[in-house]
Amino acid sequence: MEGIEHRIVKVNGINMHVAEKGKGPIILFLHGFPELWFSWRHQILALSSLGYRCVAPDLRGFGDTEAPPSQTSYTCLHVIGDLVMLIDGIAGKDEKVFVVGHDWGAYMAWYLCLFRPDKIAALFNTSVVFKPFSRNIRPLDGCRAFFEHIGVERFIKGFLTYRIPGPIYLPKGKGFEHLPDTPIVLPPWLSEEDVKYYTTKFEKTGFTGGVNYYRNLDLYAAADTIMNWELVQWSGGKVNVPVKFVVGQEDLCYHLPGVREYIHNGGFKKDVPLLDEVVVMEGAAHFIQQEKPEEITKHIYDYLQKF
Fold this sequence. Notes:
By secondary structure, this protein is of the alpha/beta class. The protein has helices at about 40-50, 75-90, 105-115, 140-150, 155-160, 190-205, 210-215, 260-265, 265-270, 290, 295-305; strands at about 5-10, 15-20, 25-30, 55, 95-100, 120-125, 245-250, 275-280. α1 crosses α11.
C-alpha cells in the first residue's frame, strides 16, 4: 500500500516483519487471528498523515514473521518479549509508545501493559477485555463449555482439532481463489484484493503459529517453561496505564458469559483503574477496525490527542 515501508527486525531470537509509515509519536498496532499487520491498513494510512509513526508487526507465527516450530514458543511471555524488544528498537529504552490492539493483539496488549507499563503511554484496545489470571477455570475448558452451550457444533469440532499438536494449513486447492464455482459472499468491508492478500500469506505459512496461541492458553507447566495460565504470581495484577476500550455491539466477545457485566458493573474499572472510556459501537461486530475504519481511526486519534 502507498508509502508503507516493510522491513525485518531481529527480536527475541526471531525475525519479525514490520510495516510502518509516518513520523512522530509511535503507535504500535497489534493484530489478531486470523489476521496480519494488514488488518490495520486503514488506520496506518490515516494516522500517519495526522502526525504519527504507525508501526504494525506480524506477530510471531503470522505472515512474514518467523514461526518457531515448538508449540510452547507461543506463550504470552514469548510474545511480550518480542514486543518489548521491538519497542526498544523503534523507540529507544526511554520513550513510551501508544498501543492499539485487537483480538489476540488486544489480549497481548493487556499483558504488555500489565508486565511493562513503563513502555506504554496509553492503550486503545478493542474487542477483548482484560482477563486477570485465575486458577478457577482453565480458559480453553471455559470456551468449550460456552460454545457447546450455544450449540456451535462446527466450532467445537474445530476447537478439539486445534488442541491436537501439529501443523494446520489451508487444504490444497481450497483457498479462496481456487473456488470459482462456489459463491462466497464477502462482507462490504472486505474486498477481493484484501482476501487475496490474506490467502496468499496463510497458504504459504499455514495457521499453525496462530493456533498455537490458543493451544498455550492453559497448558500445564513443563519443567523448563511457564505457560500462560500458570502465571499465578500475576493474579490480582492491575493494568496501570490510561485505556480506552471499544467493542462492537454484535461482537461475540462482548456476549461471552459475564463479559457485559464485567464491563458495565465495575469489574473492568477495578482491574484497569485508569480506564477512561468504554464505547459499545452499534452496527459493528468482531473485526471492528476493518468494519468501521473511519470511526475507529477517529476514536484512536481523539483519544491519543489527550497525551
